């Protein structure tokens, strides 16, 4: 057998290849591209001659007798062909197929109830032999399977690593995609590096260093307060005059006795009518706003026009950094509580009042005694000034972009739904909806400086500022920086020599030392030593990781970032080579707030939460499911799992729980009272409320919709995949439409029951759909409903909901609460699914047949220790699989 290729670490031994396309020295790029041109996979070679594990041929009679009517080569129901199945279990593919057969027979799933059943004698003999052969196959394949592929940092890890190294935040969105369909962004097979990506990494590294290395004088902390009525009233007055002048010209045209509208400044009749309509819709409303007492010493936040938001500009000359944003706000009257939230974000480049949300805060104080709302915001380096022309006589918008903070009343979609709400209100009452929030003033303070020069600069230029800025200093900086960047490996002297020479060349060309050093440091950040999680494997057999290597693996598993000084010190002291020492450090990492990087990264992918962003939720149907609520529902899932880890809670709490973790915004959405503040906290679920556990979370339920209607199919399939650990097969090609009822305005259950009349659909949907029926009392955005509303000829028709169903094994349930109870009884299968995904995430490769002994051991340990999430995490870290390369 040919030994698989391995990464050749040439960081220290560059080879010259001339590459013509570059904006820096060609030989420099050649040296780096030569490093990157090496293969990015390493493996473990297996033996030439392996013993065979074979299922005896006489067991083919079992298939012939009980299985081939549905699973021969021609029928292959469920894409299962047993007629051509190899009886040799010596490959992963074959062994995994036989494992599925064992699972199906053990669970009673096969043969189906309406087919001939195997006798106890036949079934016992078959299963006994198969079980023994699978154990033998697992031992055989464990010698060649389960290798951990060397991989580069994914985007999350890159951003975190840069922040640890330089103390600044970067956006890695333009870096190579981490896509691994159906898997995790830690999978080594998809995290490779090619030479054409080098300049992307080099450019981002240079941007990071430009921000990290600061040589300017210490900026003063400034505070600037804006009396918002000045700008708001000017803007409303300007728009009022625009509409007024248009109406005046329209009146003149109407009185002219049939003259052309062009003589009055209109392009045609349509523009004239449009300007008249603008006055009718806006004139009185704008005048009323300007005449109100509250707008003489503050600004009212209106639904749509005339004043939907207030902007706060951070000027170009203000340095990047962290700023404190404050606003004095009060509630006007006694509005619906859902309207008393203030949204704060960066103002978008569009003119539709959109913002990139930073925070959402509940305002409780009345206008007579306003409260101060405060948030911290990271203001980036100004990329370019932004101006947008927004129309005749309204001037130019210069108050938009990445340095403009906008404040607005929480709204579903201010430009669209807000426009409709305002239009309807004016049509009915002659006035806009009464404002709910009033702002007295807004101010910014910053940059908030902890030390100067910044910690990022001091971390690079570690020595006295008066030290001679020469080649010796450059070498010391590069050596120290590279050691930190490479995590546990010092750079080779030859590598440092080359980078030192580059710094000298930059200085010879006239650059200051602080500028010249950026090139070699950028190259360190674009080198394999930084970009790859390296665990050299020179032997063809697994080896134990060194203490430092284990520290790196542990910290990237639980923090998605490099190990801190305490973890490295423990590694160098030999503590990680003992079970107690490793457990102590694992607990410390899990108790640290940085463990939320694991929680969010793992959970998002494990539960397939990307589906929450697959489609737009219809704001007309679900105005309450706005950007702030959507974000809060996502955070609820992360907060719940994070809390279970910190509190050593059992995994079963994810299936059914008497408590939930919510904040004030989500409490308002769910209809739960007496929850105050933006922080998530544990709250007891009120009696009879359908919350508690994943199935009661709005984000999970919203994922099982298309933004318009709930989908029993999507919800049922998700439950099978994630909660029951019984994933349905992929939908076959050319899936037929919903049978004879396609296009009819009917409840979801009636449509799907007709769908099951199609024979090619029934096999899977008879398992999937009945689970989803149990969740039909939740609408498309996860709110409880009594009836299903279906649009029939533009009118809403209410249908009763039948939420009775069955689980794949035939267990019946009546409604959501019984469904949740029946699923909670299957906690062991849920735990197995969690552990298998955890193994895949932690080891950076697909979970396979050879991992079953590992998952069994982790699950057994969990059974003995309360099935807490911590128990599973600790057991995985303590395993040989995690501690070996």
TrEMBL record:
Pfam annotation, one family: PSCyt3
Ranges where the DUF1592 domain occurs: 545-672
Domain spans labelled DUF1587: 151-213
DUF1595 domain mapped to chain residues: 473-535
Cytochrome C Planctomycete-type domain mapped to chain residues: 67-114
Domain DUF1585: residue ranges: 809-882
Domain DUF1588: 691-788
Signal peptide bounds: none
Name the UniProt record assigns to this protein: Planctomycete cytochrome C
Protein source organism: Stieleria neptunia
Lineage, top ranks: Bacteria, Pseudomonadati, Planctomycetota, Planctomycetia, Pirellulales
